[in-house]
Amino acid sequence: MIDITAEISGVKLETCVFNAAGPKDATLKELEVIAKSASSAITMKSCTLEPRKGNPEPRYCDLPEGSINSSGLPNLGYKEYVRFSSLLKKYHKPVVASVSGLKLADNVKIIKVFNNSEADLIELNLSCPNVPGKPQVCYDFEQSEEVLDAITDVCKKPLGVKLAPYFDFAHFEQMAGILRKRKLAFITCINSIGNALVIDPDKESAVIKPKGGFGGLGGKYVKYTALANVRKFHELLPHVPIIGCGGIYSGKDAFEFILAGATAVQLGTVFIQEGPSCFGRIQKELKDYLKKKGYETLEDFRGKLKTLD
Ligand code: RRO
């Protein structure tokens, strides 16, 4: 028997593969599709205090090897996701609430209500690239410290943070220093790579409407950046579970993330492009790959990446 279960802060996942916050997870109908799929948890769309329609359409575009989006946090408002977390309990899977308040006071208020909800894990999204006029919090280290101090103070559930990709070792170290000082149940690496620009040369136009065409890049284009972020944070914070996200399309991709140090992986663009069958397919591919390698559990190889020096 190949075991691909995972555990995050006492929350057991039947497999290490589930959905990422964002794609097709804003309504109860969409969440029930995830609940009925092989996804091992149900992650809900990042929520704000008030409902939001999001940015003007078109705000998402499939690309040959991934996606670009500037959805702009369309969501039903946190109260609905608190309600959904109880309604989804009947599927007997962990529910992950994603919180992305537009200011610190909003996050505090939302988290306080989720404290008394049925959500199992809370992922604080510090990395949304698509709200006009709102820079990504996790690129501002002072603000990140302030937010994390306030949130870790009030949050009674296992709390994780979702980070944008970093590209410089000094930035990894700065963020790891901040995270090390706070009690975190997990880190999710990475959100989409913010403010990419995709151009249609025939139309001589950007492919999405908001922000002059700038949006978050996802899918295969970001896999190697995501792997680097998982690896670096695993090296710097070896005791914090990391959820890898970014360009996972196959069991082998999932294997690479775990080898880099991930405890679990989330699927984003592939779920949009393939639909809910991606969860079972990637879980099966991962199990088959472990079998081929003679591994029985994820612990056999987690974080054991070889380097050439
Ligand atoms: O809704 C979005 O535009 C969005 C969010 Br909140 C996020 O965290 N990452 C992303 O690529 N899009």
Considering the chains and any ligands shown, give keywords for the structure.
4-stranded antiparallel beta sheet; 34% helix; binds ligand RRO; single chain; alpha/beta; 309 residues; 8-stranded parallel beta sheet
Write up what this structure looks like.
It is built from nine helices and 16 strands. The chain is α/β, with parallel strands linked by helices and 309 residues long. An eight-stranded parallel beta sheet has the order 3-16-15-10-9-8-7-4. It has a four-stranded antiparallel beta sheet with strand order 5-6-14-11. The chain binds ligand RRO. Ligand RRO binds at residues 22, 46, 69-73, 100, 125, 127-130, 191-192, 216.
Task: Write the SSE topology.
Elements lengths: L5 E3 L2 E3 L3 E3 L8 H9 L5 E2 L16 E4 L2 E4 L8 H10 L7 E5 L4 H12 L5 E5 L15 H14 L4 E5 L5 H12 L5 E4 L3 E5 L1 E2 L4 E2 L7 E6 L3 H14 L5 E4 L5 H10 L3 E4 L1 H6 L2 H17 L16
Parallel strand pairs: 3-16, 4-7, 7-8, 8-9, 9-10, 10-15, 15-16
Antiparallel strand pairs: 1-2, 5-6, 6-14, 11-14, 12-13
Bound molecules: ligand RRO.
The site of ligand RRO has 16 residues, from loops.
